[in-house]
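Internal QA ticket QA-208
Title: Verify multi-chain structure generation after dependency bump
Assignee: T.L.

Test input:
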Amino acid sequence: MQKSLFFILSLVTIFLFTSCTDDLGGGEYQEDIQPTYSLRKSCASHQHMENLLSDPEYKKQYDNRIASFNKSKTNTFEKALCNSPTIIPVAIHYQGVNNPNASCLIDLAKKQVDILNADFQGKNSDINKWTSNASSSFPSVNFGETCLKFCIADQNHPSGYGVSNGQPAITINKTQGDQINAWSGYLNIYVQFGTGALGYAPLGGAGNGDGVVIEATAFGAGSGCGSVRPENPYDLGRTTTHEVGHYLLLDHIWGDGCGQDDDVADTPNQATDNSGCPSLGIQSCNSSDLHMNYMDYTNDACMYMFTSGQSQRMETYLASSLSNLIHKASSVCSEAAQNGGGGNGDGGNGDTICDTPESNSVNQITQTSAYFNWTGSDDAIKYQLRYRVQGTSWTKINTTSPEATVSDLIPNTTYQYRIRTRCDFGWTAQTVIQTFTTEAGNNENDDDDSGNTSSNSFKVEITLDDFGSETSWFIVDNDNNLVAQGGPYRDGINGRVKSKNIELSNDCYTFVIEDYYGDGICCDYGDGSARIVNTNRTVIVESDGNFGTYDELNFCIEGSSTKLGKRKKDVKKKSLARKR
Ligand SMILES: [Zn+2]
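Actual output:
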């Protein structure tokens, strides 16, 4: 059954994050009128494709790719033994990541590519759900095992993206958008925030620097890296599997309803998309739905196979219309990378990765000087040490080697210090604030106008709800430097108060409390809340816990007084339903 592919705009379910802003002093918050959108798997590929095809030049090249594909398709396809898989060079581009943790992001990308390889080769650990159970409901369907190998490129990178020869092609905050000419010949994976969907891809990619776009909360698997964190139920890397399926010319499993299929012979017709985790045997179009297919919209844990027809289609498209990717592989993927290494820089020591110094020390402390050194990174451009007496402004020292001597200190005085690294992608996060005290002098030094610094100790207190693993918080100063952070915590300790002592000087701060599930920390599963108190236990700022994904509280410390600023919070979406 042929269909007029690609011109049908499927309705895309988007999830909106509404927020309202109010002055803290203003009191009440208005709950916005709740949208009826729900969080579920959605993919904006059809809409993306329609946009692309509105460009006549793109359309012409697209038609050529499909014509080559159709020509190849008529040949008998014999599945060869997969002794030497076709290598697909991959580059991953993280975009707009605050305080990126480079080594963590690199590991996350490697994990995602491992998932791609397993899923496309039919070697995923959950394929037994098909082989030992679901397959009996689909006697004419075999699961797919492509002879493809995704390889994170590790050599001959385009210049200007902060990756040197031998390192994996993973860029951090060096690109924008979803098509970059310099990265032609690669399957690019663009990891972005705020795509409005879980992801999108062209239906049949071009290899011209285009690629798949994945929402940062649906990329990779595991605990993630700060804000780049896969969220249940899209936390097993299957959004990328789905989008790469589109890139290799797979349509959604349901095509466009019972009358028009997805142009793959062995997939049963299906009326529409499935979501969540459907029971085996649900039917539409007089046959069982193949809802465990990667090209449906079900939860990551409930999709685990391509069909052999889909695999054949993808391999044919790659061979007929993406030969530039295949040719590129030999020059950008070393043998080590092809064998799964994904470039060096891993293997435990990690010292070639540009990152926040792992450890540091301060010694040789005298009345007026101190010597600092810290763990360096091979790819660091420079480092910045900042130090101050609590309550005063930072003095900053830039240095190209991982050490510095400071020599204008006041005797018998406690200083704070922290260090960060300048990498190709920008500044890393700072080390946590640490302190040291200079030696006492013979003379009283009265060059001290900050005598009442002792009032700068505060305590962050988080009262947990029943889902502590969803809760975390951080405080940044006026320059967006991370000052303190905490969480996530354990589940099942509803009502427990987690506290942390912090030091704040005269500056303005933002205290952000987050719940990654999106249902706040009050009041459905406990009465969670968050606040900062001073040493007299006076409340400085407080969140009632009734928010969606975050509650952001701004405040300033001015000596012994504090001033409240704006509050911004994400409103809880009432449609969130627990599936645990
Ligand atoms: Zn899709």
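Spot checks passed. Residues 1-40, 341-352, 443-454, 575-580 have pLDDT under 50 and may be disordered.
Status: verified.
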